[in-house]
Amino acid sequence: MGLELYLDLLSQPCRAVYLFAKKNGIPFELRTVELLKGQHVSKGFLPASSPQKVPVLKDGDFVLHQSVAILIYLSCKYQTADHWYPPGLQTRARIHEYLGWHADFIRGTFGVCLWTKVLAPLIGVQVPEEKVRRNRAAVDRALQLLEDQFLGDKAFLASQRVTLADLMALEELMQVVALGYDVFEGRPRLAAWRGRVEAVLGADLCQETHGPILNILEQMANKQLPPPPPEAHPSMLLRISRIP
User: Fold this and answer.
1) Are 63 and 31 in contact (CB under 8 A)?
2) CA 138/CA 243 separation, integer angstroms
3) CA separation for the pair 45, 170 (Å, rounded)
4) Looking at the whole model, is its pTM more than 0.85?
5) 33-79 pLDDT, tens per residue?
């Protein structure tokens, strides 16, 4: 059995993994796991040792979780172009610096919008408006730090060429864009950075990858999204309760 990737393109980290594998011509078998249908908590959809989350990589008997670990594994195993994960110690340190900050300030903050606008309503829950406003303010603060602390006057976040850091960041920002907040409007440096990253990836691949999330609000309005199964509700309610 060759390389298998368990993904749902509604998920930001899954999209980063998918983009990287497709852009670099890495051969893999796509195992779609539909989060809205609760397939990640159902038996038979993920490898036995998986913690009910995607993305998951399965390479023979080797199973790996966490998008950053998967991206580094793929870049090393398939010897992708050096600019993605450069061999230089200091450039790698800059990538790791961003990814550590990303986990603390971007990942949870930018993911809230999907919960407030789509996932919570699907199970009949309304997130208090105060929490929505607080999240919007947190997104704005993170965007300013992203521009000032990491992008600055560089072409990309960690170096003068695109790296794994840019891929992870782009997908988080596109998540918020898809949910109705154009984070690039009024931020010319960030908008130019997005254009450079997407130019590297290619318009067709970006359209293919972003299609599912960019259509999410239309599907919600037309009641085309499947309601999550009851067994998924407890974990969803717990996640919603943790929105700051």
Assistant:
1) no
2) 12
3) 28
4) yes
5) 988 888 877 677 788 777 878 999 999 999 999 999 999 999 999 99
